[in-house]
Write a structure and sequence with these properties.
There is one protein chain. With 279 residues, this protein is an alpha/beta fold. Helix content is 26%, strand content 33%. It has eight helices and 15 strands.
Length: 279
């Protein structure tokens, strides 16, 4: 059985569970379950703290895990990224009260609060800056106001936590993070199927099916404007001057594409959701 680590709580847990469910796996029914076996799919899920997942997978105790790129790098684990999962996006940034710092070099000798000392320490070392890291468990945005640090380095998503704490981002982007599938050995039986299933879910979330009818005379323009994922399917219609076209497009921006096709003379432009995919 493939042994899979899944976040048991926190920012990634809900979407990770939803994705696995959409990929056809049996999830946990009770949020207190620690282990769930899914023999029909040949997998076993271990619900763990997101921060610990890279440690379990890196040690070989578990085969693969869903976690954040930032948590993977912070852990120093042997595990590596197998696939990006298209959710849990965040950036990792330095922040301080407005005007306190404007660039990285000014962090020399100052105190930086973070719950990701591995990630931040490695970044500072690579940049040739020597600072004192103050290791906190979370809510690091309060560290400056409470006087235990001069700056913070933390996960930023919408930026509202920083704003509420009166802090502003400065300096370079430390990391762009995403939820990722991690492992040590991609040849373990079952991993390739898991990856294909998860990628199928990512595709089904990000792409839609677009159907439209277009005059044959405009077909080249329309397919050049909307080439789709691979190549559009073109089918004859009863009226020989028209054809039907089917193409996959990104969900984001689909209304703009529909407007453009309409302007080119396409009609009966329909969008439908993709429920599952193997590409
Ligand atoms: N507000 C957010 N929006 C999007 N992703 C986030 C957000 N906060 C954290 N993440 C991502 O989620 C992961 C961290 O998850 P989480 O915050 O649940 O773990 P933690 O901070 O170690 O645990 P906890 O917050 O429960 O102490 C990281 O990969 C991070 O990039
Ligand atoms: O930019 P925002 O959308 O405001 O999100 C960023 C906040 O979310 C995370 O906190 P989390 O809820 O994980 O709490 P923690 O600090 O205790 O880990 C992160 O550590 C930031 O504090
Ligand atoms: Mg957190």
């Amino acid at each position: 059985m493939l042994r899979i680590a899944v976040p048991n709580k926190g920012a990634l847990s809900e979407t990770a569970a939803q994705m696995l469910w959409e990929a056809g796996y049996t999830g946990r029914k009770d949020p207190r379950d620690l282990v769930v076996s899914d023999p029909a799919n040949g997998v076993e899920f271990f619900y763990l703290r997101p921060r610990d997942i890279a440690t379990y997978v890196g040690s070989g105790a578990l085969d693969v895990g869903l976690t954040g790129r930032d948590l993977l790098l912070d852990s120093g684990s042997e595990a590596h990224e197998i696939a990006a999962l298209g959710f849990g996006g965040s950036t990792f940034r330095f922040a301080a009260p407005a005007g306190a710092f404007s660039e990285l070099a000014e962090l020399e000798g100052v105190r930086i609060a973070t719950s990701y000392p591995g990630l931040v320490g490695e970044f500072l070392a690579r940049s040739g800056v020597s600072a004192t890291l103050v290791k906190l468990d979370g809510a690091v945005e309060s560290a400056v106001q409470l006087g235990v640090a001069d700056a913070v380095a933390d996960v930023v998503s919408t930026g509202s936590t920083l704003r509420k704490a009166g802090l502003e981002i400065f300096g370079p982007v430390i990391l762009e993070s995403d939820a990722v599938l991690i492992g040590t050995d991609e040849t373990i039986p079952g991993i390739a199927t898991l990856v294909r299933r998860l990628q199928g879910v990512v595709v089904a979330r990000d792409w839609v099916l677009l159907d439209y009818d277009v005059p044959v005379a405009e077909l080249e323009h329309a397919t050049a404007a909307v080439p789709g994922f691979e190549s559009p399917t073109v089918s004859p219609l009863h009226d020989p001057e028209w054809v039907a076209v089917r193409v996959m497009i990104k969900r984001k921006g689909m209304n703009r594409v529909m407007d453009d096709l309409y302007a080119l003379g396409a009609r009966a432009i329909l969008v439908s959701a993709i429920h599952a995919a193997r590409l």
